[in-house]
Amino acid sequence: MENNKFPDDFLWGTSTASYQIEGSPLADGATPSIWHKFSHIPGKIKNNENGDIACDYYNRYEEDIENLAKLKVKAYRFSISWPRVVPEPGKINQKGLDFYKRIVDKLLSRNIEPFITLFHWDTPLWLEEMGGFRERASVDHFLFYGETLFREFGDRVKHWISLNEPIVYAIQGYVIGDMAPGYKRNLKGMFHATHHLLLSHAKLNAILHKSVKDAQIGIAEAQIWTKPLRPNLKRDRNAADLMDNLINRLYIDPVTKGKYPEKLLAKTAKHLPKAFEEDLKEMGNTCDFIGINYYTSQSYRYSLFTPLIHAREVPTPGYKRSAMWEIYPDGLYNLLLRVKTDYGNLPCYITENGFPLKEVKGRDPLDDTERIEYLKEHIQRVLKAKNEGVDVRGYFLWSLMDNFEWEHGYDMRFGIIRVDFTTLERTWKKSAYWYRDLIKTGVLNL
Ligand code: NOJ
User: Residue 2: is its pLDDT beyond 80?
Assistant: First the structure.
């Protein structure tokens, strides 16, 4: 019989991010992030919503950590807002640090292991105004911020995530333009930002290991399983392969193998900073673990008219979809196996996985059975990969509670805890009870 029990030391957790939950973006000496600016531009966000209040976690984090304790999670992944901590170049805001200090202390008092994300897209506006990640100077600013956090929390926090989904930041922020900083068709911006973010990660790894004992640092990578629409056609296979290079390998290969994926490089080298090859020498082997954010798969067909990549995404016939994406649990299994076969079986965590649901009149907002089904199927693939020797050590559900879903505003809800965005009241959904029971037993009942 297949083993359906996770080991007792498997790290069950939930994930959130600063701009999506905190609110009070300018409190206590913080300065604006690019998301603060972007979300206040009319027409950028669904219903013109923004993160001014969000879940008001800035004032209610104690209640939220109590919920984490009741869920019995062993770990909590959250991000720090850079412009709260470094409101101006080179200046540290103690009040900002104190906020996160209260969170870390409270988590530890409840035996919950903090996993801190340094960069979950809320770049300080002052940095963006200096050219943001397009400029190499961003690396030094990132290191100043990172060193500050390692110094402040390194004695108690041992798991660090330098970057969250750099591909999404780069593509949506520089090419599509529907996310901050909101540039369109700026390939140079996209590849410069990519390179400087990855280089920052590599340097942060070195600094962390020099200054903090027994700590680990990785990247939470957006991973999408890409497939050719018509597998018998070579041109569709090539299209899917190039998209795999772009979405997945572009952000893992440099920090593991010390190189950019070759097929992609052939097309994009001209958009990278001049010194990129030199930098790659210090980028390899700088992931202590790989974080996988997994939600979906995508099919691609060859398209003559799409510049650079010649690939166009098309819905996979016959696949079920959530409110945002197609559903393909096997993609998670495939990507986990790939960590074993292609990346030396580095330790890995599912740093995000979750299911969006909109509230509709006439349906109980607390009954999220569809979410439970999605989670079960995905967690089953995690277990399968684990049973086959993949060194997957934990699973962080996105998300602890409904929150600001970027360009979709508050409409798209990912929480296992409901937030009433008028009263800010938190209420457990069916999935929260289900997750608590799974954590308690470690047994996945399908
Ligand atoms: C990825 C991002 O890291 C997170 O911020 C976002 O809310 C979820 N996926 C859902 O889209």
Answer: no
